[in-house]
Each structure stands twice: as structure tokens, then as C-alpha cells.
Write a structure and sequence with these properties.
- This is one of the proteins that bind and probably mediate the attachment of the 5S RNA into the large ribosomal subunit, where it forms part of the central protuberance.
- Belongs to the universal ribosomal protein uL18 family.
- This protein is 42% helix and 19% strand.
- It has 118 residues and is α+β, with helices and mostly antiparallel strands.
- A 4-stranded mixed β-sheet has the order 3-2-1-4.
- A hairpin with a 4-residue loop joins strand 2 and strand 3.
- Helix 2 (68-85) runs parallel beside helix 3 (103-114).
């Protein structure tokens, strides 16, 4: 196997391992973060009912000329604001197999600043 396939397989295994341990419930839903090369997406999921309760992404942010890390922090604040409207205060953070640094960390910090607890 070449390097890219090995890296993808390792990330897939990490995601499976994380999802086996983290389960979102109605009281304590899962905050899932997906990071692509260009955008970042966050959603709050109730795994027991298989429903997405709240979602946000950087395409919803008005200011397009800020750095990707700053956009990620704004996405965190936005998802926290939308969660507060749905009366969600506690979540379980799912980093989606990515390392907890950079844009993933910025989403978490923004969500904490917005009032989410995890």
C-alpha cells in the first residue's frame, strides 16, 4: 500500500475507535467536527434517534477575509448560539479522527466561549 492509503486507513480506524466510545444522547448529544482542506463543518447529533439537532459551517459566516482558524472559532460560537436556542448546554466533543489542534481546537474553544460545556 502506498502512504496515502495507509494514512487514510489509520484515520478510518481512529474514527471507528472514537465512535465506539462516544455516543450522543438526547441529554448529552455529540458535537461532531468535520474539517476539509477549505471549509469546516460542525453538527450536534443525537445518536439514539439518529438526528442532527443543530449544524453550522464556515459558509454561514459573513466575513470571508479572515483566516481559516478564526473562521473555525466563529463556527464554534455559531453552533453554541444555535444550541442555546434549542436549549442544549452539554455535549460530547467528537474530533472526527483529527488531532486536537489548529482548526479543531478553535471550534472547541469557540463553542466553550459560546456557552457549551464538554
Amino acid at each position: 500500500m502506498n502512504k496515502i492509503k495507509v494514512k487514510n486507513q489509520l484515520k478510518f480506524n481512529r474514527v471507528k475507535r472514537i465512535r465506539a466510545k462516544i455516543i450522543g444522547t438526547a441529554k448529552n448529544p455529540r458535537l461532531n467536527v468535520f474539517r476539509s482542506l477549505k471549509h469546516i463543518y460542525a453538527q450536534i447529533i443525537d445518536d439514539q434517534r439518529a438526528r442532527t439537532l443543530v449544524s453550522a459551517n464556515d459558509l454561514e459566516i459573513k466575513n470571508k477575509k479572515i483566516k481559516k482558524t478564526d473562521k473555525a472559532k466563529e463556527v464554534g460560537k455559531l453552533i453554541a448560539q444555535k444550541a442555546a436556542e434549542q436549549k442544549i448546554t452539554k455535549v460530547v466533543f467528537d474530533r472526527g479522527g483529527n488531532k486536537y489542534h489548529g482548526r479543531i481546537k478553535a471550534v472547541a474553544e469557540g463553542a466553550r466561549e459560546g456557552g457549551l460545556k464538554f
